[in-house]
Amino acid sequence: MASVSITSLTKRFGGPRSDAVIDDLQLEIPQGELLVLLGASGCGKTTTLRCLAGLESPTSGRIELGGNAVFDGERRIELPAEKRSIGMVFQSYALWPHMTVRKNIAYPLKVRKIKDGLRDGWVEEVADLVDCGHLLDRYPSQLSGGQQQRVALARGIVARPDLVLFDEPLSNLDAKLRMQVRADLHELHERIGFTSVFVTHDQDEALALADRIAIMRSGRIEQCAAPDTVFEEPATDYVAEFMGMSNRLSLTRGVDGWSASGGAPVRLPVAADVDELTVRVRPEHLAIRGGQDVVHGHQVPARVTGTVYGGSHVDVSLEADGRRLQARVETGTPGSRAAAGDRVVVEIDVARARYFDPATERAVAHAPVPEVVA
Ligand SMILES: Nc1ncnc2c1ncn2[C@@H]1O[C@H](COP(=O)(O)OP(=O)(O)O)[C@@H](O)[C@H]1O
Ligand SMILES: [Mg+2]
């Protein structure tokens, strides 16, 4: 196990004027941490992993593993992949079909000539760890998808690498199995604490697994923090959207306070020297009131455009002043009986909303206790 330090890492696939797929990336990962790299498709997650593994040659920057440079653009250091102590687990299990489970798991030990591991039963040990000890003599085609991915997991950690890289390893599994293998992986990490970078585009997976989440956007890290921090206090408008604060409203400052168009002014728990604010709110933090009278500043008039029944909740689509809003209300509450075409009032939970400066897209400090004034 080792720490990872990435400094000013840049990768361009074309010439010096082409767009940087990884753009001056900085990241410090302490030993034993499971860091989740979370971002939309195409933001550079796989390329980052490939640079760490030595499968891709970065354009510039520095990567250290356990304090030793494995890549340094200036000093022209570039350790080949097989000399880096790194395990990898991919989306496709990529097991060798003609090899037994035992041989598949042992493969990294063979390639890296780790004789101790072959002699001292590391394969059996790690197979037991992922509940595959009884499958060692089978071939991959004789295993279920979940078992295959567990074997791939065992192969990734068998050589006791300094770092384990995961590239969306659960995305080929069906929903139930994904949850199960995710829980197993979480437990395994708690138990043996390997340093790892886990790539996903799935917010729930990131929250469930990560010690810290790094949100990546266009080759840069937008925010890197503990899961609850990223969820509760997104640093930017982009992170807020990515973490489920899907409703976005614009407010302007007037003499009586902040207001959305059509809404009454409201005093908000923010102290910012700006004249406009972007408000981000989760669907579950919007309430629906009957009638059309806007009496409080944290209310805006809206029209219901559709509803989707979800069992314990109802998702209500709304339109307010040309903007689409999404509310999630508990089944049985008055708001859950809203129907398409209804004119209603949407109430924003201003204490749980988050506020951003539209010019910089960065979060604006908010006070813990809001003061809502009619
Ligand atoms: N070998 C390559 N040559 C050219 N462009 C590439 C290559 N690999 C990846 N890219 C581009 O780099 C960007 C990031 O890709 P990738 O790292 O695979 O993203 P992610 O894993 O986040 O979906 C994409 O725009 C992709 O098209
Ligand atoms: Mg990818």
UniProtKB/TrEMBL annotation:
Residues of the signal peptide: none
ABC transporter domain span: 4-243
Superkingdom to which the source organism belongs: Bacteria
Any one Gene Ontology cellular component term annotated for this protein: ATP-binding cassette (ABC) transporter complex, substrate-binding subunit-containing
Any Pfam family the entry gives: TOBE_2
Keywords assigned: ATP-binding, Cell membrane, Membrane, Nucleotide-binding, Translocase, Transport
One function term, GO molecular function aspect: ATP hydrolysis activity
Name the record gives this protein: ABC transporter ATP-binding protein
Source lineage: Bacteria, Bacillati, Actinomycetota, Actinomycetes, Propionibacteriales
